[in-house]
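hey so u asked for the seq, here:
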Amino acid sequence: MSKNIMIVGVGGQGTLLASRVLGNTVINEGYDVKISEVHGMSQRGGSVITYVKYGEKVYSPIVDEGEADVILAFELLEAYRALPFLKKGGKIIVNSQQINPMPVITGAASYPENIIEKLSAVADVSELDALSLAKEAGNIKAVNIVLIGVMASKSDIPYEKWVDTIKQTVPPKFLEINLKAFDLGYNY
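ran it, structure tokens below
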């Protein structure tokens, strides 16, 4: 049995830290893990995709179309773009935040409407305002850990294992905020 997870977002949202927390947690649980990071224009607010695969033995980090068990989306449009990768019966955990891509900013395109309705028509969707929860935790940059908390609450891995990994992964000066963000997401 293996699990295929896609973490999608926009450059600067902390998708890479989220993938490290996820990867380290499942390694600590004894799974074989492969992670592949695909950077778009990450420094300029472009798409960032990370594939995390884990199981007894994993040979490739790439998640092909129709293979993702979970899509962890930091932004609505990125969730919509990743939809073809979700397997039938898969889950989407999505932050309700909208970040306009460059074509929308320049007026060359418009931001798609009714994304949650489109996602919900074909998938099990958990939508939340992770940005507000991150603010409540003390830093808007903690959206990533809020979302990891939501995903962790739906996993078989014990709460304490996630917390231990966060303590090992996050720099000490940001630890208190990240632990609070994790709890807010976990208990959402």
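The CA atoms of residues 24 and 165 lie 6 Å apart. DSSP finds eight helices and six strands in the chain.
lmk if thats what u needed
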